[in-house]
Amino acid sequence: MSTLEIKDLHVSVKTEDGPKEILKGVTLTIKDGEIHAIMGPNGSGKSTLAYSIAGHPKYDVTGGTVTLDGEDVLAMSVDERARAGLFLAMQYPVEVPGVSVSNFLRTAKTAIDGEAPKLRTWVKDVNGTLEKLDLDASFSTRSVNEGFSGGEKKRHEIAQLELLDPKVAVLDETDSGLDIDALKVVSEGVNRFTEGADKGLLLITHYTRILRYIKPDFVHVFVNGRIADQGGPELADQLESEGYDKYVKAAV
Amino acid sequence: MTVTADNVTSALEAEKVSSHLHPEGSLDVNDHPAPNGREEIWRFTPLKRLRGLAADAEFQASTTETSWNTPEGVRIANVSGEEARGLRGISGLVPNTRFGARVLSEVPSTLLVDVPSDLEIAEPVIVDLVGKDAGVTEAGHIPLRFGAHSSAVVVLRHTGSASMAQVVEVAVGDGARVTVVSLQDWADDAVHLTHHEAVVGRDAEYKHAAISVGGDVVRMDSNVHYDGPGGSANMLGLYFADEGQHIEHHLYVDHDAPHTNSNANYRGALQGEGAHTVWIGNVLIRKVAAGINTYEENRNLVLTDGCQADSVPNLEIETGEIEGAGHASATGRFDDNQLFYLRSRGIEENEARRLVVHGFFNDLIRQIGVEALDEKLRDIVADELEKNVLDIPFEAATN
Ligand SMILES: Nc1ncnc2c1ncn2[C@@H]1O[C@H](COP(=O)(O)OP(=O)(O)OP(=O)(O)O)[C@@H](O)[C@H]1O
Ligand SMILES: [Mg+2]
Q1: DSSP B108
Q2: SS3 call for A203
Q3: Does A81 lie at the interface with B, CB-CB under 8 angstroms?
Q4: Cβ atoms of residues B238 and B267 within 8 Å
Q5: How far is the CA of A54 from the centre of ligand 2 (A)?
């Protein structure tokens, strides 16, 4: 049983001319077993929502609440949120030079589980997961994300999703920059994750093509820091043919 | 264009350029007044803490205990008299400091490492210099001679307490592949003033690694010039300054032959009140040095408040016909995005910082590439981090 509940969330970033409000009251509830897609034009605040849930220090929450199974997420540090069961697959995964993927994954798994994983099964799990995501075993000795292609970075994010096995995952444009084969591989990884019991998924995307492989239960249209419309999967098809124009015009 | 060693030498003699980066030297001690700290090459150095080593401290009988292993075919010996005198200047060193000139003219102790031509040794030569008394000011001359086409690794490992002025001369024969590592892992009260001068033969590969983590003051000058085209120098450095420590590295690569390469990569971390590091990277590309490649980089990671990292790369180019020349220097705190990424995977803040610092040095340790030292170097980084007040929160990184 897990529920991520976002209520009237207001978030701003610091700019040279003072704080700028990006999220202007976002309300959204993701229950386990549910897949929510958030779609919206560039600059509408999708990544801001994702980062704010994960606790990036760049963003200031100025109002509203975020809870995971009733626990106050906003009061938690970044790492506490992850240990509580939240996961963010980033739009632009960060390079960490000199830290090997295997060391990183082991350290993260140990932190999340509160104990070191059993060495033998762990190595198998890691290699198996990398392989399923079409990442050569040699990736485990490489530095985290360093020199990875855009697609490799995204597949590495999904490998982490599978290995760390959170309760609720937010995927920020994991599909962008992927060719069709990589998109399938990534989608299969995400579907393996959501097949697990009690998983919630928030899928942020710009394009509808990933929704051919990952079937959302709900689609939200995100414009100008707010949810402008919501519906079922059919809303995605409508966006595909009509675009965001009418929402953008309405928002101004 | 083909260039022979001979016409390079004559071209060099023809043009005696004096670099702005590096004053002309002299073997005569009287040509070098004691420094007062205003000289360009001394302006960062806390001369008062050097116990007179840069000026006229008496060079007393050494109390440093020296031992080494001797791979087959290598000669390592304390030498004296005529033989010792004959080794002074084997790198072509003409000192630009008083202590350098003094060491070459009056040093009582000379330790020779002699690797004959064509000998390839896999086992590193490890010379241990264990200081016993920081109250004794002493000096040493260490000539390292590598014959043509030899291949060897020599590690000078400095530990314990000492006040030491030192000149290390490295002669890398044609086609030789040589690594020299100097580890300054001194006790807190040690003072070490050292000049490493290397001449790199035709088509030879020279790697020099300076690892400075212990001592009150460590200043090392590591210089390279070439004795023919095709040589390459890879100058690496790893340093870690704690509270009150002064660690200073000067680098001078004199591209005085065509088609030579140099690469410099120095990385340091600082923590604690009054930790001070200095990195000066000078590269001179002389007129004769057509078709050379050079890149130098220094990065400093400032772990706490109250530290100072000076970093000054200099490139002086006297010819337009180079293949590549560049430098980079960066000093900063932890990268918020790296910490965020690691923490977003559940890793606690301190652990995330530790990972980032290890990562920062890991690459360099790999480049140093002396397997026998890998673990030691990783331990050094881990030990330094243990001492650290990593728990002090950073405004930037706490959310
Ligand atoms: N430091 C900043 N200063 C000013 N504006 C900022 C700053 N950081 C973010 N913004 C603005 O916030 C808005 C939302 O950005 P965000 O990255 O959340 O958009 P997005 O919906 O994820 O867009 P994309 O589809 O391009 O990924 C953008 O207009 C962006 O320019
Ligand atoms: Mg975005």
Answers
A1: S
A2: strand
A3: yes
A4: yes
A5: 14
Nearest chain A alpha carbon to B343: A79
Write out chain A residues lying below 8 Å of B355, CB-based: 96, 99, 103-104, 107
Whether the complex's predicted ipTM is more than 0.85 is answered with yes
Q: Domain residues for B330?
A: 18-334
Residues in chain B, total: 399
Q: Is residue B365 part of a domain?
A: no
Q: Which residues pair with A20 in a beta bridge?
A: A13
Q: Is the CB of A225 under 6 A from ligand 1?
A: no
What is the DSSP secondary structure assignment for residue A215, as one 8-state letter?
Answer: -
For the record, the structure tokens of A93 come out as 């995964």
Instruction: Assign A207 a pLDDT band (cuts: 50, 70, 90).
Output: confident
Closest Cα partner for B170 from B203, B207, B211?
B207
DSSP one-letter code for A74: G
Interchain CB contact of A76 with B (< 8 Å):
no
In a domain, B212, yes or no: yes
Residues B229-274: tens digit of each pLDDT: 999 999 999 999 999 999 999 999 999 999 999 999 999 999 999 9
Fold of the A3-251 domain:
Rossmann fold (3.40.50)
Rounded Cα distance, B36 and B55, in Å: 9
CB-CB contact of B83 with B163 (8 Å): no
Q: How far is it, in rounded angstroms, from Cα A7 to Cα B357? A: 38
| CB-CB contact of B286 with B225 (8 Å) | no
Q: Which of A78, A83, A98 sits opposite B363 (nearest CB)?
A: A98
Does the CB atom of residue A83 touch ligand 1 within 6 A? no
Residues of A in contact with B397 (CB under 8 A): 57
Q: Which two tokens stand for residue B262?
A: 């140099």
Interface membership of B332 toward A (CB under 8 Å): no
Question: Which atom number of ligand 1 is nearest to the Cα of residue A44?
Answer: 21
> What residues have CB less than 8 Å from A163, skipping those under 6 apart?
A105, A109, A125, A126, A129
What does the pLDDT look like over A215-224, one tens digit per residue? Answer: 999 999 999 9
Determine the Cα–Cα distance for residues B63 and B103; give it in Å rounded to an integer.
17
Position B311 in a domain: yes
Q: Nearest CA to B349 among B359, B336, B333? A: B336
Asked if B370 and B124 touch (Cβ cutoff 8 Å), the reply is yes
Residues B146, B152: Cα–Cα separation, whole Å? 8
Residue B369 lies in a domain: no
DSSP one-letter string for B363-388? HHHHHH--HHHHHHHHHHHHHHHHHS
- Count CB-CB contacts under 10 A for residue B85: 13
Domain count, chain B: 1
Cβ separation B398–A78 shorter than 8 A = no
**CA dihedral angle for residue A74, residue A77, residue A81, residue A82, rounded to 10 degrees:** 160
Closest CA in chain B for residue A99: B359
Chain B residues 62-101 within an 8 A CB cutoff of chain A: none
Percent of the residues in chain A that have a pLDDT greater than 90, as a whole number: 89
Instruction: Name the residue at shortest CA distance from atom 17 of ligand 1.
Output: A47
DSSP β-bridge partners for residue A26: A9
The angle that helices A101-113 and A150-164 make with each other, rounded to 10 degrees, is 30
Is the pTM for the entire model greater than 0.90?
Answer: no
Scanning the structure block, which residue is given the tokens 């200081």?
B131
Ligand 1 pocket test, candidate residues A42, A60, A221, most atoms within 8 A of CB: A42
Question: Token pair 């140099």 is at which residue?
Answer: B262
